[in-house]
Amino acid sequence: MKILVIEDEKQLLKSIEESLEKEHYIVETASDYPSAVEKVFVYEYDCILLDIMLPHGNGLQLLEKLKDAGKSENVIIISAKDSLDDKLNGLELGADDYLTKPFHLAELNARVKAVLRRNTLDGKSTIDYGNVSLDPDDRIVKINQQEVSLNRKEFDILKYFLINKKRLITRTGLAEHVWGDHIDQADNFDFIYYQITNLRKKLEEAESNIEISAVYGVGYKLELQ
Amino acid sequence: MKLLNRSLQYLSVTILVVVGIWSVIFYFDFRDEVYDIVDEGLEDQLELLNEHVREDPSLLETTTFENGMFSISPITYEEALIYQEEVFEDALMPLPYDNDLEQVRMLSEAYLVDGEYYKYQVISSTVEEDDLIESLFWFIVWLYIALILTIILVNNWALKNLWSPFYKVLDELKQFRLGESKSLSPVTSHTTEFRELKQVADDLVERTTQAYIYQKQFTENASHELQTPIAIIRSKLELLLEKATLSDDDAETVGEVLDITSRLNQLNRSLLLLSRIDNKQFVENDHISVNDLVRQIMDDLEEIRSYKDVSIRIKENDSLTIFADPHLGKILFQNLLTNVIDHNKPGGSAEIKISNNGFKICNTSDADALDKEQLFRRFSKKQETTTGNGLGLAIVKAICDHYGFEIDYSHDEMHCFQIFFN
């Protein structure tokens, strides 16, 4: 899988690159408009991360060009502006998703995977890890071929972990992903712990060979036992 | 006090003093003038009497004023010395054909006739001071009233016409709302001061509006500019934590910084949201069913609610629809609903009432009644127990203000927030 990251902030570009490489993607970067245009039209990418504010040009202009060339469907806009106009324009121009800075790397990872999954029709739609298989479309989880009943949020949590397997998922990142923007107060960390404990219990009862382990009190990680 | 009444007050007092002083001076001057005329007449009369006496010495027998306006009486030499010169005096005496005492002017002078001294006296009726003062007084009163009436009329006219630009500018300034009104509408005037006033008001409005816009844009730009550095910090820290090279203590510290970064982000987003509401950037209004929205948010918050052991009862009396931006509408109710869960007590409860024109949400809490004045202010965080940034209710208030909804807080066993949508 080949991914192009277009971002003018070098430090952020480096972090995104590093994070994506952990997922074994081939990552290329561009940090201004002309070099982005060049790369986009010379090479083929499975996913393009596009910042809107770019030196010597605007990400939305580039998106327009991509749309004309029929290449806009695998673009994720990453922007500091969560202004609705930009969001709507971007999505209208065929961008697949819109991610507002600052994002959690796990969230970016999830969004990239979603784009890749949608655009590569390899017939397999489940996410598998160990003896766990999760079907995001039908919202079914099977452990050892046995269907396990999870409530809606438990399903979302597990899915987020499966997408980000072996990666750190922070409590705030998890809360934001599953419960939205407004529930990432420290106040609610106990609540996240409680949810994870419940999910762990269900995984254990179904004799799964994956486990959610705590990472330094800031987050969790999904690994094989 | 109105300008009209104030100027009338000053003018009436001033005019009263001026007219008063003037009338006193006038009175004395007028009286002297009258006496001068009368005295000259008396001198002529005396001259005439002298001539008559020379022609007809029998007139020397007229010792009283009975038959005319003169009298002649013999006097001694010593007395004659007093009347050597003309002596004018005022006197009261009965006039012939009239028994009343009348004020008269009397001229006395000594004459030598055939070696004998005689005092010649002539009189003339003159103005009575009482009468003079009285009629003068009434003249003054009427003059005063006439002046005041004239001033009222002129003032009224002047205020209506001359001052009309002033009142227009005043009205415009009264109507002016920062951030809502663009600029003052033009006012034409030929008066220099009013033209200056208008100019100054225009400048002031423009500068204030500019400052307001800059300030609003500054908050928004600053928040936007902060997003990228926060994104860098967050991604770097997350990557750092993923490295297995950190000691547990170090990792914990990094984790704490990461949590604080999240708070920073939350704060920044809230500020951005507030400034965007203030900047009126939410214009995609739509009809929103409050009932559906509340149920949906309740659903999202279900796990937290049950974890916090708070029971929530919804009473839907009517179906309520509001016209607002769906994003803002969601934030409005989400903030209120999260609040009743976060600020509740363990095992507490909350009540939501949706009726035709209002939404009421109440929760139990260990906290006392909150300060109504402080409640909706930005950063008015009261309790140290919550890590909220103190902007939740400020955002609620900003959204309500934006749409002209009325929000009220009351405390009666439960803490209640009520919104009237009108």
What are its keywords?
heterodimer, A: 225 residues, alpha/beta, 5-stranded parallel beta sheet, 4-stranded antiparallel beta sheet, 8 helices, elongated, B: 422 residues, alpha+beta, 5-stranded mixed beta sheet, 11 helices, rod-shaped
Radius of gyration of chain A: 18 Å
Strand adjacency order, main sheet of chain A: 2-1-3-6-7
The quaternary structure here is heterodimer
Whole-number average pLDDT of chain B? 86
- Estimated helix fraction of chain A: 40-55%
Largest interface: A-B, 44 and 50 residues
**How many whole angstroms does the radius of gyration of chain B measure?**
49 Å
- Please tell me what the overall shape of chain A is: elongated
**Total helix count of chain A?**
8
Measured distance between first and last alpha carbons of chain B: 37 Å
SSE string of chain B:
HEHEEEHHHHEHHEEHEEHHEE
Largest sheet entry of chain A:
5 strands, parallel
The tally of strands of chain A reads: 14
Main sheet: strand order of chain B: 6-8-9-11-10
The DSSP helix count of chain B reads 11
Structural class of chain A: alpha/beta
Question: Could you give the order of the helices and strands of chain A?
Answer: EHEHEEEHEHEHEEEEHEHHEE
How would you characterize the largest beta sheet of chain B? 5 strands, mixed
Q: Approximately how much beta-strand content do the residues of chain B carry?
A: 15-25%
Distance between the termini of chain A: 28 Å
What would your notes on this structure say?
- With 225 residues, chain A is an alpha/beta fold.
- In chain A, 42% of the residues lie in helices and 25% in strands.
- Chain A contains eight helices and 14 strands.
- Chain A has helices spanning 10-21, 33-42, 59-68, 84-92, 105-119, 152-163, 171-179, 189-205, and strands at residues 2-6, 26-30, 47-51, 53-54, 57-58, 75-79, 97-100, 127-129, 132-135, 140-143, 146-148, 169-170, 210-215, 219-224.
- Chain A has a five-stranded parallel beta sheet, sandwiched between helices. Chain A has a four-stranded antiparallel beta sheet with strand order 8-9-10-11, with helices on one face.
- In chain A, helix 6 (152-163) crosses helix 7 (171-179).
- Chain A starts with a strand and ends with a strand.
- The relative contact order of chain A is 0.10.
- By secondary structure, chain B is an alpha+beta fold.
- Helices cover 56% and strands 18% of the residues of chain B.
- Chain B is built from eleven helices and eleven strands.
- A five-stranded mixed beta sheet of chain B has the order 6-8-9-11-10, with helices on one face. In chain B, strands 1-4-3-2 form a four-stranded antiparallel beta sheet. In chain B, strands 5-7 form a two-stranded antiparallel ribbon.
- In chain B, strand 10 (406-412) and strand 11 (414-420) form a beta hairpin.
- In chain B, helix 4 (164-175) runs parallel beside helix 5 (192-242).
- The mean pLDDT of chain B is 86.
- Chains A and B meet through helix 1, helix 7 and helix 8 of A and helix 5, helix 6, helix 8 and helix 9 of B.
